[in-house]
Amino acid sequence: MRLIAANWKMHKTVKETEEYIREFLKFVEHPESREILLCPPFTSLYVAGKLLEGSGVKLGAQNCYYEKQGAFTGEVSLPMLKEVGCEYVIIGHSERRYLFGENDELINKKLIACLEEGIRPILCVGEKLEDRETGMTFKVVETQVRLALSGLEEHTDGVDIAYEPVWAIGTGIPAMPEDAVSVHGFIKQLLNDINPKNKGKTRVLYGGSVKPENAGEYMKHSEIDGLLVGGASLNPETFAKIVYSF
Ligand code: PEP
Questions:
Q1: HSE on the CB side for 28, CA within 13 Å?
Q2: Fewer CB near the last or first residue (10 Å), C or N of the chain?
Q3: Residues with catalytic annotation?
Q4: Distance between alpha carbon 134 and the CA centroid of its chain, in Å?
Q5: Interior angle at CA 80, CA 72 and CA 23, nearest 5
Q6: Atom 8 (ligand 1): residue with closest C-alpha?
């Protein structure tokens, strides 16, 4: 099933989360026809989980730590996320990689922990502008995917991937659908090389300046299994338009 995910980033207090979800649920119909996922900040997860109960809309976190508990000040573990109702967690978002210094090794540990805990990770990969301009897009994406999945070759079907070119995130400059399609095709081929049993079980989402006006253009293509939406997910009506754009 196709997956449309909202990454709220560091937006919305608990009160704003309540207002958003009450409004958003008015637009939700046939939640069984597509997977709809909200990823609010940590402080809003508990209340979001309560409000989403029975709605068919799923809950995810934007990050996690790989240890279950311990002296890791400021971190949040997977058992904590599971208890408040998270079924997904975004891992290796470019803001985590480039603003907070997350490297492929840490991302790999987080993915291993997610699979052990039974929370489905959405692994974010994507090239920077200079990579694209120097023809390195496929190489960069391949390296990120291979390192993130190292040791998980038999379990790739437990992971979804979001292809998010860094130059398209929050810039208002989306990738051309044909360009996204070619990278998605490449990632799918790579997944089959890594694990011939994967057979399409890993969804590959597109992310980067998606809005209601362009969402349908991506979703026309069978290579694109869903969308990860940042800025345009912050308004419930706008996000609902994206969810129902196909
Ligand atoms: C994101 O944060 O994952 C994202 C794709 O952001 P935006 O939609 O704002 O480009």
A1: 22
A2: N
A3: 93, 164
A4: 26
A5: 125
A6: 230
Per residue in 199-226, pLDDT tens?
889 999 999 999 999 999 999 999 999 9
Indicate the number of domains in the chain.
Answer: 1
* CA 225 to centroid of ligand 1, rounded, Å: 16
Q: Looking at this predicted complex, what is its ipTM?
A: 0.98
What is the token pair recorded at 26?
């008015």
In 10 A of CB 144, how many CB atoms?
A: 22
CA of 31 to the centre of ligand 1 (A): 23
Residue nearest to atom 7 of ligand 1 (CA): 230
Which pair of structure tokens corresponds to residue 12? Answer: 């919305």
Ligand 1 mean position, distance from CA 207 (Å)? 6
DSSP state of 197: T
pLDDT tens for 56-78 read 999 999 999 999 999 999 999 99
What number does the ligand 1 atom closest to the CA of 211 have? Answer: 8
Q: Which residues span the domain enclosing 147? A: 3-243
**C-alpha to C-alpha distance for 197 and 195, rounded to whole angstroms:** 5
Tell me the pTM: 0.98
**Pocket of ligand 1 from Cβ distances under 6 Å:** 7, 9, 164, 169-170, 207-210, 228-232
Distances (CA, A) of 44 to 14, 81, 86, 104, 123: 5, 11, 12, 28, 22
